[in-house]
Amino acid sequence: MNTLLLVSTTFSRKEDAERIAQLLLDRKLIACAHISGPITSVYRWQGKVNTTPEFTMSVKTTPQRWQTLQDILVREHPYELPEIVGQEIQHVSDAYYDWVCGEVQ
After folding, report:
1. Distance between CA 101 and CA 80 in Å, rounded?
2. Cis-peptide into 63, omega within 30 deg
3. Assigned fold of 4-103
């Protein structure tokens, strides 16, 4: 079975998402990124409930690149504690899987 990872995070500024997407592409850690928003996030941070506009970035990669991708997101992300969530995708068309694996090194 072909397995990929869909990794998502959020940003307060679209420009930050675009910058990090480009960095990850340049380093061949992802095949593509989707940036959407603005969305509204409601969350508790440091004892206070916040409602803020954010942009979501979802990227496609291979399980082998998870740790390096996560390390770069932690280092480059403007948030003190960024959301970094990876989901295994097990049902992937052969052609798309081959393309992602060809782009990610």
Report:
1. 31
2. no
3. Alpha-Beta Plaits (3.30.70)
